[in-house]
Amino acid sequence: MVEMNGGVGVRARSCGGGGGGEGCWRLVDELSSSRGGSSCAAAAAAAAAESEYVRRFHRHELRENQCSSTLFKHIKAPVHLVWSLVRRFDQPQKYKPFVSRCVVRGDLEIGSVREVDVKSGLPATTSTERLELLDDNEHILSIKIVGGDHRLKNYSSVLSVHPETIDGRPGTLVIESFVVDVPDGNTKDETCFFVEAFIKCNLKSLADVSERLAAQDQTEPIGW
Q1: How far apart are CA 33 and CA 74, in angstroms?
Q2: Could you give the domains of the chain?
Q3: Which residues contact 21 (CB under 8 A, 6 or more apart)?
Q4: H/E segment holding residue 143
Q5: ∠26-98-177 over CA atoms, to 5°?
Q6: pLDDT by 10s per residue, the chain, length 224
Q7: Which GO terms describe its molecular function (predicted)?
Q8: Which residues are CB-contacts of 215 (< 8 A; sequence separation ≥ 6)?
Q9: How far apart (Å, rounded) are the C-alpha atoms in residues 218 and 224?
């Protein structure tokens, strides 16, 4: 089955359970639309590369009553530009539309904690998040939510960016995966759907901002 949803591909969804849990898989592929109708061979090669990225960087250990999902976004902007936005743990509002304010406690380094204010109208007002990994060589960002007035308990995510070619020009593949507890009163599918909706909005906004900057030939400065 192939389905499209908001321009962001959800390649795999899994639900935790005893002994590894049952798997709930949805196959979604936006390759042909983002690359202007790639050949079957090119699409297969790209899918194999994506699977390898997931194997290397997006493996989560699921506990009972947790769910996980992996989302993909192809962006028509070079990887260094996209990464310059993603790596700003201190300024997620540069592309995340639901963030109104962010304050980092102390020095900005691995283990740093940020206090994020969420825009009104959402089922939360604050989120406290810790920087778990920032790798400028592999282009990987990982965070863990450690507090806030929301229901995302034991939430952690990994976001990686990878160079690719789109329509003969430098592009970027963004992969974001997460694992989170399923709240009481919700199913695993409901929980995954809710989180995926936020991530899809973030990734669409990241694409919009990155592609606009690319058109203006601008890059966010690297560095804290």
Answers
A1: 10
A2: 67-217 (3.30.530.20)
A3: 14, 15, 62, 64
A4: strand 140-148
A5: 30
A6: 222 333 566 555 666 654 443 333 333 444 444 445 557 777 788 888 888 999 899 989 889 899 999 999 999 999 999 999 999 999 999 999 999 999 998 888 999 999 999 987 777 899 999 999 999 999 999 999 999 999 899 999 999 999 999 988 999 999 999 999 999 999 999 999 999 999 999 999 999 999 999 999 865 555 55
A7: abscisic acid binding; protein phosphatase inhibitor activity; signaling receptor activity
A8: none
A9: 18
Q: Of the candidates 130, 165, 166, which has an alpha carbon nearest to the alpha carbon of residue 145? A: 130
At what angle are helices 188-215 and 79-86 packed, to 10 degrees? 120
Nearest CA to 21 out of 57, 55, 54, 68 is that of 68
Specify the DSSP element, H or E, that contains 170: strand 169-181
> Minimal CA–CA distance to 50: which of 31, 67, 69?
31
Instruction: Return d(Cα 71, Cα 49) in angstroms, integer.
Output: 15
Amino acid symbol at 143 = I
From the CA atom positions of the chain, what is the Rg in Å? 17
Reference 53, options 149, 173, 157; nearest CA is 173
Q: What does the alpha-carbon distance between residue 210 and residue 219 come to, in Å, rounded to a whole number?
A: 9
pTM of the model: 0.82
Q: Per this entry, what is the length of the chain?
A: 224
